[in-house]
From TrEMBL:
This is Dipeptide/oligopeptide/nickel ABC transporter permease/ATP-binding protein. It comes from Streptomyces sanglieri. Residues 552-575 are annotated as: Disordered. It holds the Pfam family BPD_transp_1. Residues 73-262 form the ABC transmembrane type-1 domain.
Amino acid sequence: MSLPSGLRRSPMAWATAAMLVSLVALALVGPLLWGAAADRPDPSAVLQGPSAEHPIGTDSLGRDLLARVLTATRPSLLLALAATLLGATAGVLIGACTAVLGRRGRRLTAGLINLLLAFPALLVAMFLAVVFGAGAAGAVLALAAAGVPGFARLAQTLAAGVAGTDHLAAARVLGLRRHQLLWRHVLPNIAEPLLLSTTTAAGTALVALSGLSFLGLGVQPPGYDWGQLLSQGLDRIYAEPLPALAPGLAVLYAALAFQLLGEVLAGSVARRGPAPRTPAPTPAPSGPAEDGLVLQVEDLSVELPTPDGTIRPVRGVCLSLRPGEVVGLVGESGSGKSLTALAIADLLPYGARVSRRTLRLLGADLAALTPKERNRHLATGLSVIFQNPASALNPSLRIGTQLTEAVRAHRGASRAQAAAEAADALRRVALPPALLRSRPHQLSGGQRQRVMIASGLMVRPGLIIADEPTTALDVTVQRQITRLLTDLRRDTSAAILFISHDVALVGEFCERVLVMYAGTIVESLPADRLADSARHPYTRALVASVPDLTADRGRPLPTVEGAPPDPLAPEPGCPFEPRCSLRQDRCAEQAPPLEDLDAGHRVACWHPVPVAVDPKTVTAS
């Protein structure tokens, strides 16, 4: 194995490698070459100073001190590494689990970490060494326990960055258990900085362990390490300094090697690349179920706490989908589209609160299920295609592993059976099965999006939520993805909730369109009537803002004038009233309900726009 080019040019890297090789060599061959001389007493050479026969002198039994220092390399390093690994393992598991625990468990774990950090690590190590009893085992356990809080805090901080990623949310949708989330999706993505911290902590542990042995709390005679040799040589330091300096220099040399290793690894990494979840309150019993619906949502609302107060980005949303139906959800950024989808999938951000009168998926009332039953039903009943597949896919796992997780977790499929189903899923999205061994960074954007769709197909869902799946793709790939979704809808009869900013794409791809503004549904109509028969001023303004080849290039593109309402200070009346050129007094006083205009067409507006009105005259100038 060769070093990276950056390391090969670094003098520090070469010096560190030489120091580590020398320590490893001494640990391996030291007891074999000098073990006998280190343990052989010589009454005629007691407490001698440095000489040609004994370069740094002898101890009170006439044993050669140089041989003892060299032989002590193995126990000193092994005990320090053992203490570091034990403390790092326990601390990392405690800190990383905060990314997968529930609100109460996460708060308790965070409180425990804060409590442990209040005590100085060295004092804790000395106290526990006394409690466990003097000796090598007690010293190792004491140092490991003292190192747990530091590793736990570091892992907690790193895991918090992973907890909000799309790929962890996707894994939750698949219904993976907490230990699977921890081992497959959290730890692999925080391993690198933890490894660097562990490397430098080994040097600190070596110094601390030598200090405990120096105080008589570590290695006990007849065993010895550098700390005990330093303690024995200190009594004669004024007459013969070398017996004390030699083990001290050995501790310094080894600790410096570990610290330099951490610096080198951190430099290599730098050169390579540039809150508790609040459960929803217990909802009231759902309204009556409507037969034949894949999804039935009534009066869905979401609240988010902010430093300036609580906001309601989703208010009173009602929607339903039938098998094989494609429903588009459109609106400006911040209108609540993605939050609505996340609320349905039970993937709201930490701290969010959701309420609803009815939420049924595939006929099951989610409010009536236990948390375990609800998670399993959501994991097998729906799939979510996220906007950014690069973040939704775990960068540390192969594509095959990510595709097979759900079927192995929920259907008990064997590894071979799951791999065969994953290969078939890739074929259905026009990708070769050979990509199962690839990692996400090796795929193009279109391929990653297809992998996301294949992942959703593995559980044979009744509902597919596509949250802006074509936003970052070029026009050709957009058409391929929408054509693929159309084919999958035809083959599997799955309903699709298609969220997008692209009004033109939604009009072509979907059968029915829901227009969302300021957290509410303001219009619902058939997609073939979107371009010329929309009645809400906001919908007409969205349609008018879509550019076409006949537009006058000398004039600016039409836009929806004004800005959405402030969610922290909602005004009474219609939320679109300040931006609407057709507003009247009633619009500022009372919010309009979503009412039927004709078959399949509903609108929330006191004064629906006549069909013949030019949409460019609807918004305020």
